[in-house]
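$ fold --in a.seq
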Amino acid sequence: MGKCDGRCTLLVICSLQLVAALQRQVFDFLGYQWAPILANFLHIMAVILGMFGTVQFRFRYLIFYAVWLVLWVGWNSFIICFYLEVGNLSQDRDFLMTFNTSLHRSWWMEHGPGCLVTPVQDSRMAPDDHHVITVSGCLLDYQYIEVLSSAIQVLLTLFGFVYACYVSKVFQDDEDSFDFIGGFDSYGYQPPQKSSHLQLQPLYTAG
């Protein structure tokens, strides 16, 4: 019963991770954030693999999923520190998120709750095919929205890691106990054999 509860809980956590990652992927696409897009894609693949391993009792898939979650915590911790400008990190370098291929920033910068976007006309600061804007009135700045999104990812990841380790341990114990009793190769079990010889009996008739 404990194994079933653990598997069901892990599947629920993986489902929440998948929904959160897909939601994040959509907004990163809208903001042309190529580095997060790549990381989100790898995370989605790892979560799907973890769900498959949970359903199919695949111990190695769960180990891979758990290892990826450690890397995922590291990535989201970097995102949090980046937007909070911890240490030498600065939001002035946020073009790193686009692999320096465009000047786009987080989609939430212009579309956050309550944000009022005002274009600046005839600005010499704008490169070709770009325009300068001012954003005001936001109820929550875009960097805090990004931090909140990463914090949710970290929280789900911690729960997923704990249950992935628990379920994989249960799977491993089941495999060890199965090997201990000999599985289907036990010498005490002999499958029925079909005889290939037919014994002929004489047929008597009344004369």
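$ fold --in b.seq
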Amino acid sequence: MKNLKLLILSLSICLLLGNLGVSGYSNVEPCQRSRCNNCHEKFLYRHVRPNTPLTTDRNAWEKYLREKNDCSRPTQSFLHPKDRERVDAVCSSSGGKRYQGNLCISQSPFTFLTVRSETGTCGVSSVREETKHLILACEVLENRCVPVHFEGNREGTKSLK
């Protein structure tokens, strides 16, 4: 009987953690209330920054990353600041659709730069211009559904019709 209670308790905990997502943080659907007050600002800082280089020149990007002391992530994607409203719209019916989990996919493709570097050194190995549909995690902050995470679209998935 004691083993059965332990088994039921363990199973209940596993189910509960499973509903919280892999990291224990992610919502299971887009546009649910966020548990992270600064996630949208963090997303914008990481992906929609003003004054990023508009070139694929590796030296320009290495200089930029060094100046910003931003060498901790080996792959970073940067969207043009003029696209900010379009990026935010991915989390609404006007610009995106539900993809899976708490992810939405843009209805139209975006052009952005993907920078690959050596972690900690800022040595840039490649800068590639890409045009793909964005896949973004979307959560509600201050009564607005906004992007909080950029998910790579490795397969080049297009918006669901």
